[in-house]
Amino acid sequence: MSRRPSHPVRLLASALAAGALLTTAACSDGDGSQSASDTAAEQAQVARPDAAKQTPTGSPSASPAVLTETGAKAALLTEADLEGNWNQVQDADKWRDRLLVGEVDVAGFLTAKSNATDCQALLDALYDDGLLGDPSGPSALTGFEQGDSRLLEQVAGYDRAGLDARMKWLRTLPDTCDEFTATGSGGAKRTVQVTEASVPDVGDARTGLRVSVQGDAEGGPVTLTVDVAAVRVDTSAVTVMGGGLEGGQTDSVAQAVRQGTERLQTVLDGKTPSPQPTTMD
Question: What is the DSSP-derived secondary structure letter of residue 33?
Fold first, then answer.
């Protein structure tokens, strides 16, 4: 895979680069009379005016779980979470691919010119590993290699409104950016195709894409294929991107999404993810 060491941002690979949740009911005697314990409870609430605002045991949490820096790192995938010969690397934050760098041909959009802006934003986001925008909270990233393919995962905390808006935007891209042309720095034309991809039914919301870029590298035609999946869990999210010049990594990305979401959920529950995955076949 070609690299672009001077670029300050990060991405998935030869391919590039991406959450917890708690009911009760207060009871009184059927004849409407008050027990001694009821009276004591009311007296306690007088002493604590905020008690009525507190979430009873078992009811949906009023405050979302907060992702910490330590938690984000603990939620990251390990080699044990992935089947196959995936090897964890230490420089995933430096991965880059020049095939993802290019200027979208605005003239190629016969209808809404704004679509070109969206497609340019997609290419830029794939390159700098910002599919869900800039995290507003902690962020951690890890990557794995298998032959010439790469897989990158990011766990991060976001502003809820911004996160929902970004995921909604990603879902529109298979329509607005179905197929378009981008021009590389050397003038070479690249054909980019964007299609919808399925994502395991995990988390609170999810979306997936498959992006393929046809171009030239080292004097010959090549096709870079990247499978992308993003899953929201409360105000946190897991983003997984995998693929390379040998094709996409649909199965590995799906597995990484399942395991990564489970690990994030465990962290948000205040627990430590098990070193041995529980959902492996």
Answer: P
Report pLDDT digits (tens) over 1-49. 433 333 333 333 333 333 332 233 333 344 444 444 444 444 444 333 3
Quote the CA–CA distance of 18 and 83 in Å, as a whole number.
19
Rg (CA), the chain: 23
Whole-number Å distance between alpha carbons of 129 and 240: 10
The better pLDDT of the pair 17, 193 is held by 193
Task: Name which of 122, 230, 100, 241 is nearest 176 in CA terms.
Answer: 122
Residue 20: CA count within 13 A, CB half-sphere = 19
Beta strands in 147-199 (DSSP E): 149-157, 179-183, 189-196
Exposure string of 160-196, with b = 16+ CB inside 10 Å and e = fewer, is eeebeebbebbeebbebbeebbbebeeeeebebbbee
127 token code pair: 């390159």
> What band does 61 get if pLDDT is binned at 50, 70 and 90?
very low
The DSSP code for 77 is: -
Please, is 17 exposed, middle or buried when counting C-beta atoms within 10 Å of its C-beta (0-12, 13-18, 19+)?
A: buried
Give the tens place of pLDDT for each residue, 141-170: 999 999 989 999 999 999 999 999 999 999
C-alpha 177/C-alpha 60 separation (Å) is 39
- Alpha carbons 220 and 52: distance in angstroms, whole number: 69
pTM assigned to the model: 0.75
